[in-house]
Amino acid sequence: MTDRRSMLKHTVHVALATLGLPMTVRAAVGATKVLVGFPAGGGPDAVARILAEAMKSSLTGNVLVENRVGAGGRLAIDAMKMVAAGGRTLLLAQSGAFTLYPHLYGDSLRYKFSDFAPIAPLATADFAIMVGVNHPARTVRQLLDWCRKNPNEATIGAPALGTHMHFVLLELSKMTSTPFVVAAYKGGGQQQIQDIAAGVLPAAIAVAGSIASSHASGLIRVLATTGTTRSPNLKDVPTLREEGIDIVATDGVGLFAPSKTPRALIEKLHDTVVTALAQSDVRSRLERIGFMPAETVSTTEFASFIKAESDRWGETIRRSGFKLEK
Which is nearest to 277 in space by CA: 164, 122, 165? Predict the structure, then answer.
């Protein structure tokens, strides 16, 4: 009896202590945490925060975003392997983590796709090929013709090698039988824009949303985008498919849980994401930052898509012979 009274007394003390905590700390006790492997303020982080806000009404407690920055998003993925499969810690990852990295890092990668349960795609971003306004090319076909006629100048910049954008250019070169050099621009889109506008670099590829304003202002000219449909921020620009080049490529972000998470919980989280993405405010906020809300697919379809994309890019990487520098 004494032990029971003591236990009840301890429980009351704990409850009272919890009530005395600040509201943010109390909320965190039952919060869902989303790990993001990229810095606050970047694209993946922005997507995570938009969805976290929209999802909290369907989940118990707050939905908090935690940035585990480093190694191209791999630190967050490695950390995710260590968490319990209770649905309280989730991972927002870029598609390349499962479609490119296994082929680039091989056995040195500390995780496998099978370590995670895909919940739902969240958003996608397509890519855009641009030239300077003084470049003679007005279409991507004209750019490719220019590259063939000017082989010594045929260079197209990409933010980094070993990325989707790099491999899109390799596919473009092979599919159209057009040789050109892919140059890595560590400064990313803004450095490329400056060099394109100044005529230092003939052409470049970048995330479509990041260069839309420069296209609209007339600083650069975007020739084509890589999505299945026209980019919402570049509606006057055709897709590669519209130009007769059958290449579709996007960089997506999706939500994942540990592989041992109960199936019923995975489906509940999937439905929560679908509900959030159906909100017009969420969709417009994603489009404003250059992302397109993901189409609704089942968890099984999402997993199959990732595997198919891994096979596709794995073949492109293998065929190119590209190796990351050690």
Answer: 122
